Amino acid sequence: MCAKKLNFSNEEYLDFDLVGISSREKEFRMAWLLNRELDWQLELSQPIQLINGNQKSEHDMYVYESEINHFVIRLLTNRSVNGVLLPEFGHMEFLLKIEGVEQEQIQEWIKRIRGMQDVLGVFFLSNESIKNVEHLIFD
Q: Is residue 125 helix, strand or coil?
C-alpha cells in the first residue's frame, strides 16, 4: 500500500491576524499593560502545550472575548524554557492572535502598543510568513 501525502492550504486555517510584540516584561505584566492601555480584559487561560518530537514546551495564554464587539484576542508567550511556539518569529516574546477585528482597528492598537514604555517593538505578521500555522490551532 502506498503512503498518501495530504496537503492543506493555510488559507482555510488563517481566519485571524497575528501581531508580534518584543518586550522584556513577564507575560502577566504584559497582559496587565495591554488591559490598561487598550481597555481589554485579558485573563489567564489554559497554557498551550506543544510537542515537537520528544521535546515538550508549554506557552502561557491570556484570552479576552468581547461579547459586545464579537472578537477574541489571545496573548501568547512565544518563547518558553523548552521551546518556541513559532520558530519563524523566535525574536518575538509575545504573539497576539486576533479574530474578528477589522484591519483599521488592529493598526490603531499597534500604534498604541508601540507607544507603551515597556514595549521594544510591535509588528504585524502577514499570514504568508506563518510557517507553523498548526501551532496556533488549539480551539
A: strand
Q: What is the 3-class SS of 24-70, one letter each residue?
A: CCCHHHHHHHHHHHHCCCCEECCCEEEEECCEEEEECEEEEEECCCC
User: Cα dist. 128→8, 85, 101, 110, 120 in Å?
Assistant: 14, 17, 19, 19, 24
Phi, psi of 119 (to 5 degrees): -105, 130
Question: Which structural domain, as residue segments, surrounds residue 23?
Answer: 16-93
- 61-72 pLDDT, tens digit each: 999 999 888 999
| CA torsion through residues 95, 57, 65, 36, sign | negative
Say if 136 falls within a structural domain: no
User: Which residue spans within 55-138 are E strands per DSSP?
Assistant: 55-59, 61-66, 71-77, 79-80, 83-84, 94-99, 119-125
- Residue 75 covered by a domain: yes
pTM (two decimals):
0.85
DSSP 8-state assignment for residue 6: P
